[in-house]
């Protein structure tokens, strides 16, 4: 018999350690491992981590090949609560989730749904991650197709981790330990890792067939990645740093792709949490500290400060840092933490070295540790060994011993005529006939197909909820039932939302999606984008390609677009180099009859919408002699003053006067006669007016019987929407879209993207309760209802809120710096700022500016929004577009033209083109009849009239924009936190920000920033809000002065009032006119102060500094300088 090798002997020693510290606690029937002999509870997370050393040891034996030890016990959780998986996919409720722990002997639940923080997405995710890794290593874990469907639905369970607030890996959620769930980096990162590991994996291993393959969607994975990059090094809203994120940035998840973020997060953990015995879990963690009351489950917010500097230290995290050093190939780091860990291990029976759960400060040494952190000798507490840490320690010892994206674009022409137009410009394209047998479908069809994935009627599993497929999902070829499919991007689908009707918006979304593809593509093969050119992408006369589309196509053809290398060509030629997916779950098999009906119903050759509309027989409204309404700036007839609280009955009065509505004998509207009037109506404007009366009086389901039974108001509005879309009449499109209550399909995802980037949202105009705050993800129907409620039946605000939310989410992905130091985005105020900017640029009323805003194309609307977010100055160009006998308004937003003059305009208005004079007079009368609910702009004083040939009004505009966008200087909230430690609180408009918040929250917490913003947002005027921010900024300098206290509760608004009075007196002494020194009626502030530069002799900060010095004079040191 040959002797054992040295490596084999070492493995035998590790096997003995594994057996005596971990496997000896394993239940012989269920295989579950209990944390202690006293309590037969098995935690999912701990069990998975505990078995890693067993699996690692088996792999080591396999590699060493001395003995057949690779048959180590594989782990699998049985008795998964399938009903909870199904409910949670839709509800995301904390009571519909899988349990976090089970009975060791029976696998039964041990705690009620609402008696424990069960919702821990990271626990389910790490189970799936290692199920994938162990399967890939050769272990046979899944045996039946039912189990395959269970795993697939568990993937659906975790795929929305980026928007699910759970209790995290420490089972307590918010660090106040009051049972408040929050979005956790540890859960998002582990879910991303699990989805990546399982995507395309055959759970039966090498012996499996197509039906045992599971799938994950690339877009869900990349959403998780995006949120990770945004949140880190923060761990959650309440934890600015958490040692648990080591499992995300390094082993086992490796979920973060940017090494800079990984390094920053690791440095934050080491610098803020590391001690002599390990790392704290997070700041102010009271678990098992001497100051923790073991008789209470929850903490009081004010007592969190008691735990500072005495948090327990966990050796567990040094095992993560050992593994991290191994994977980043840093032997110095590995040796450093192995030596540190060896010095604190507990020696057990037979000389085994054990890792205790944690080290705590002795009760009699608490004061000493308070005064001199990390100096007191600590004592081990909790479980010993902690099997989670022991397993990783053994695994670390085992391991210690022993590109640019090139993407393809296929250009498809709807007709041969379009193909010829493209050819004339040197652009190669194909028609649907040319690409046969490949079939092209819109992305919504792919969504329907994936809705079948994981469906199992026998188990009551419905599969993936219907959601849209992102660009990563549509950039692949799909093999479905022996047919090759390609899917067009969602942004180009006109049924998606009216944004796809704007060619400039299509080009912008193409740029964003391609940029996103470049940064997020991680699959084998090139991404392939199928880009169809339809009739709607032609010029108004249909004789050429739209200039915006043509310019984009030429860039694509040149081989470089949006920072990526591009290859255009025939679709079939890309098959060999592209990423391909085989959707085997759509193949023939048992229980797949419903799938065949799906294929027959949705997998048809693509029809371009514009062509379908042209050939449709149901479009019964006449389009001849259509006169669209023009911007109201072009005339002054029957001007009406409309504001946010617009009364809908005013519509009917206006309609009745101008339309001469038919009346019955009782004097009311004769609706049957009005239907006949609609039938003969030749103007889209008149049709919209009449349909609005039906919508308002009769409702959407009222049958007009215009051409027989079934012609309901909803159907007629849908036709009007399609025709307005073809004519690019944006004001009418938005208004009809609002009446139809159409919602952006991914509205909830846009909202979630913003929330997941730690931005709270408000919808509706201030003040509360009309303005509604969104601080957590909402289902689509609830989000839509909230927007409608906040809009108070104002269709203008409701539809613009949706559009802005989508554009904000797009900007968040492409230009995240625009949102720095913004933690709450107030969409209602943004709309009001947009109206104000247009009103001042066009020199018109708020009513006219509202209509101009509604008439902006989506691309120009987004352009205006970006200018406001960035604070860039711009100019407005107003004109009209004429196509045949149809006249539509055109308003364009441009960067301000720079010149050498010191008196450049902030904005300017180009004169409308001369052909406006050719429009018939009666057309102008029609426009005044149909009015949208308007939005009141911010008030300007007589002294600050925003004159366009001077600098006057620039600082008012700057403060107004920053106030509406909740922008503050960098480090503002941390400075406020320090200031609160020198006083009892800050008061603004009667709302107090108490100093006690510093006992609950740390300076870097988003919760603290949001708390400060809540107080500031009590002020409805954004320019006044910014003066308050400036005043607080001056006050924060007191935190740097050597004073014990700055007084009790500081009245910030009083300080601003004092500064205003000083400014007013100085201006009066200089002979300023009373009209120039008009005061704001709501707060008494001199309006001219709003427009003062911060610095200078008469600057706002000068007066605020004087006011602060006067206010706190009694508290300043006696040696302080006298106020000049």
From TrEMBL:
Domain GH15-like stretches: 8-828
Gene Ontology process terms (BP): glycogen metabolic process
Posttranslational modification: Although the final Cys may be farnesylated, the terminal tripeptide is probably not removed, and the C-terminus is not methylated.
Bilayer topology: Lipid-anchor
A Pfam family that the UniProt record links to this protein: KPBB_C
Keywords: Calmodulin-binding, Carbohydrate metabolism, Cell membrane, Glycogen metabolism, Lipoprotein, Membrane, Phosphoprotein, Prenylation
InterPro entries hit by this protein: 6-hairpin_glycosidase_sf, 6hp_glycosidase-like_sf, GH15-like, KPBA/B_C, PHK_A/B_su
Pathway: Glycan biosynthesis; glycogen metabolism
The Phosphorylase b kinase regulatory subunit alpha/beta C-terminal domain, residue ranges: 950-1070
Recorded superkingdom: Eukaryota
Cell compartment(s), UniProt: Cell membrane
SUPFAM superfamilies from the UniProt entry: Six-hairpin glycosidases
Molecular function via GO: calmodulin binding
GO cellular component labels: phosphorylase kinase complex; plasma membrane
Predominant place of localization: membrane
Lipid attachment residues per UniProt (S-farnesyl cysteine): 1121
Role this protein plays: Phosphorylase b kinase catalyzes the phosphorylation of serine in certain substrates, including troponin I. The alpha chain may bind calmodulin.
PANTHER family reported for this sequence: PHOSPHORYLASE B KINASE REGULATORY SUBUNIT, PHOSPHORYLASE B KINASE REGULATORY SUBUNIT ALPHA, SKELETAL MUSCLE ISOFORM
Family, similarity comment: Belongs to the phosphorylase b kinase regulatory chain family.
Protein name: Phosphorylase b kinase regulatory subunit
